[in-house]
Amino acid sequence: MAYYEFVPAIALADDIDAFWYFPQKEIPHCHRVLPDGCIDLIFRFQRSSWGGGITNPLLTVYGPTDRFKLVNIEPCTTFIGVRFKPGIAASYLGLSAVSLFQQEVMAQECSARFVNMFDRLCECTSVKQALSIFQNAVLKLKMTTVDDVPRRVREAVKLLCANERQMQISDVASVIGVSERTLRRDIVASVGLSPKMLTQILRFQSAIVLLRSKKQLSLCNVALQNSYADQSHMTREFQAFSGLSPTAFIQQ
User: Fold this and answer.
1) Angle between the N-to-C axes of helices 195-212 and 180-191, in degrees from 0 to 180, rounded to the nearest 10
2) Per-residue pLDDT tens over the stretch 230-241
3) In a 10 Å sphere around its CB, with 0-12 CB exposed, 13-18 middle and 19+ buried, how is residue 7 labelled?
4) DSSP letter at 21?
5) In what side-by-side order are the strands of the sheet with 77-84?
6) How much is the pTM?
């Protein structure tokens, strides 16, 4: 199965991690969705080819999560989405990140701003057109939505994402110049996860990158490079976040 990601336009680079799409072949599949600290806006539909009409279209917001989820995907289902960087989506979508925790909700039921977007997506004739609609819609949201993400939260999340293996939340608060309690409260409100959980998820994702790379690293080295206490520590977090051991994850 193929999964494709696209770098966002420069105007969206600070807020968007990636635009993506995931086409499913003509066989059913159980897909393992892993926590990444982000919130996604996802359009899914079924169709054997772009030549005909689509069926079962859905536009949903997939909230932050601290555990894996197994999703049964029907044949010929395509997913197209935008993944917001941690702490950003709530401002764009006009939703509470905390209320989205462990949730997937219908976008049109959350805000009227998604009704027109959904209608346009249902009329698409290609994945390229759908991705263009996503990008234009997000650009419009950026221009018409008040950015209410505190600057300290943006700076804190950027530091945590760039230094997930080194910096503690107390260090980040000290660098930014706010109390640790204030920063914890603001991160939970914007990201939907506690700083500790976000840091653990970012470390988990960093370890995945190494495991998927072509570098011939032992599991012990992967653990050390991501500041786990030891290989057993990494294995426990992998089990919690993916339901698999690192070895089983590599094999899959």
Assistant:
1) 60
2) 999 999 999 999
3) exposed
4) E
5) 4-6, 16-23, 77-84, 39-46, 55-62, 104-106
6) 0.91
